[in-house]
Batch of 4 targets.
Target 1
Amino acid sequence: LTWKDDVATTQAVTWRTDTSVTQPIAQIALAEDGPLFTTKAKDVSATTQLLETDLGKAHYHTANFSGLQPKTLYVYRVGDGVNWSAWKQFRTPSAEPEPFTFIYFGDAQNALKSHWWRVFREAYADAPRSQFMLHAGDLINRGSRDAEWGDWIRAGGWVNAMIPSVAIPGNHEYSKYDRFGKEYPPGMRKLSRHWQTLFEFP
């Protein structure tokens, strides 16, 4: 989850599939007790971006939910109209100033499976009602490596689908190599294409 617009009334969700999925869709509804919210779910179309990486091609899909009510719990799922994710939920923040909690992370970067996974889980256990997670750069070590991005995302698991992320690119999100390992001209570094497909920011 990320934000592209007003945090109290919008929410964006991005998910990854193989390239066979060409008609992505999301559904959203107000959270209710019991299962009947599914009959009130609204379809929201999504956009698709192709990402070519060192491990092959993938599609990243993004749906932007708008017109939401502040301080309200919503459920949503993503899919292709036939195959769906599990229903997940998020709560919009207040439109008025009030106290809140967020989680601050810095430099996940190295040995992601050894350290980042544990740090993430410990932080979430300590602050499970956080409004968002702030990632202060250097999420991964090599911005063009698909496997590193996969490890970073998997560490957060379902939490990434329920608490929005705000992320700032660090120097390790910039690469001097393209996805094929070819070096850019001297002095040139480019922001990882993963960043632009994974995060839906202003």
Note: The chain has a mean pLDDT of 94.
Target 2
Amino acid sequence: KLNNMFTPSTHKLKGRSVLTLRGERVRSKSEAIIADELFKRGIPYVYEPIVEINGIEYMPDFILADPETGTLYMWEHLGLMDKNDYACRAFDKFKQYQLEGWTLGINLITTSETREFPFTGQNASAAIDYFL
């Protein structure tokens, strides 16, 4: 169902080096943690779907659906939040997502990490428990 609604991106496929339990390749160990947790819980998702906003294509990390309600969620993992330019670009992107109805804390899930505070499976699990 989700694959009919969202086309997965084929952008920079060579950058996807981490294998998930579902057998797909993602860009980072943190994205693999998220994908694996979604997969283990039977939560359908599309990795890096194409979402067009005002004629610009964005590729959030995940779009997922609550298996019980069908409610859609976007999930962005912010892996370099100790880099100011990265953080600023992320927040600019969230402004565009808001225009399309993806609202932080409602249907836009965000997780983050820095070198000092790495992302863990507990972080992924807590985010899923909170939203779904």
Note: The chain has a mean pLDDT of 93.
Target 3
Amino acid sequence: GVTDCYQPAEREFRLTRQCLEVAWECRQPVSIITKNALVLRDLDLLRNMASCGLVHVNVSITSLNAELARQMEPRASIPAARLRAVQTLSQAGIPTRVMVAPIVPGLTDHEAPQILQKAREAGATDARYVLLRLPQTVEPVFREWLERNRPAEVTRVEGRIQHARGGEFNQSGWHTRMRGQGEIADRIGNLFEI
């Protein structure tokens, strides 16, 4: 999939569960990325798949600030529930990575060290990041959200995004698309390398 496979509709439709059942039956490796603790519903299948090296789970944590997380990702699990999911998955022997994504320069980038520490304490064995990118129709939606929810921070956040994106809100180049460029992007990249 190209989106979070544990969105709220999954509670009812169980499409991800059915896909995992087929993947397990066929011994098809999968990688999951989600912002939702609902992933724990499928712990039995994930444990079986992990025992054969067929799965790893990526849990995305954008912020540890519950209010900000609720504003940015209103239908996703709260940060504490995501960290509990990381811990439960890790304790069950399922390879678990934390994705600090997206990192929003000027809004959430300062939280990355604490997220990494909490992720390690919860048992994550790896962490990666994606710098916020605002392609085409995403840009006006994000900017409207920022103006509505964080009006005092608009200038700083937009300026830092553009600084990390060569003066733009998005870069589509292969090497800069997910990481950005310049001092802010380098600082974030160095933090994750360390």
Note: The first strand starts at residue 30 and ends at 34.
Target 4
Amino acid sequence: GNPRYDIANIIGIGGVAKDSRNYGAPNFEQGYALPGTQNEGPRDRLNQNWEVKDKVSLSLGNHSVKIGADITRRNWTFDESLDPRGSFTFDGAITSGPKDQVEANSFAAFLLGTADSARLSVAPYAARQNQWWQSYYFQDDWKLRPNLTLNLGMRYEYFSSPNQRGPSSNFDLNGVVPGFIVSRQTYLGFTDISNSTGVPQNLVAADKNNFGPRIGFAYSPGWIKDFVVRGGYGIYFFPEITNT
């Protein structure tokens, strides 16, 4: 909040942020560069996980049964201006004429204020996102014989895609080459664009097929003391990495 640090406005760059949270120097990216500064931010972020989990264990004869669930609500907010003080490149292409660029050309371009490229983005973007992670499981450790135990189970997981509380857009990648050809852009919550039809609230199709079977065994042949053979197989699922 100290106005002494409102450097971008003090040196007269037009259109830069004027709020005190974004005080600071502009960013010179290439060519003649002053000591580096952070071009983004500052960044406000809040992460929350609300989790409920429980399990029940039962002994039924030669069966040991476990049943459980884990439900998590994930919330996060993320506010940041990407270039509130401006980012500039003075690589000397303008001042070098037909010759190859040298450091002196970059310095000359800086003194003249003739940036080769400039970028400014003052308005902060505001992520207000949430999603559900759910998992449910059942497992039976079945002592089939005194020297043979089977492990049989199933786990179901559902990782919902993030919901944005506010305007959002996405690309439909349903073209000829899956994942590469954009067939259309979808929108939700914009005041001047109609909401897209035929897509869910978060603009991403849900994956509800995450069934993970478990099977295993423990066998002791008996003719070698303290010798046990174990084996197992399972299918596991993990959520996509979410980048706001």
Note: The radius of gyration is 29 Å.
